[in-house]
Amino acid sequence: MSEFKRLMRLKLKMKQKRPEFKRQDWFKCSRIGTSWRRPFGKHSGMRIGLTHRAAVATVGYRGPALVRGLHPSGLQDILVNNVKELVALNPEIQGARIAATVGKRKRIEIVKKANELGIRVFNVSKQKQDEFLSL
Question: Which GO terms describe its molecular function?
Fold first, then answer.
């Protein structure tokens, strides 16, 4: 388990050091936005990797393979649409994220069932959980 914790800490450090990858010339035209697109231009300094240009997303920025894609808590992030899907989760290694399309009534049911089963719900705050449990 200590190896897992070490890798999670390493993942956090790498994330803090990782630059914010922005699209080439994002500051010149507001309509293109900052979302990452790889530069393909023939004379692009960013593509070539000139030091005074923005960073380009490459393999070296990836986190450790064993903890890649996990929630910062160390649990797998599983999307849940109903109580039936929630029951199938393993609370030791998986956590729930309630889908955006789920309404309030079903959301309350999911939170109550998750509390019974000891499953962590990532996208519902503690205040909301307390509110839902009191209903």
Answer: structural constituent of ribosome
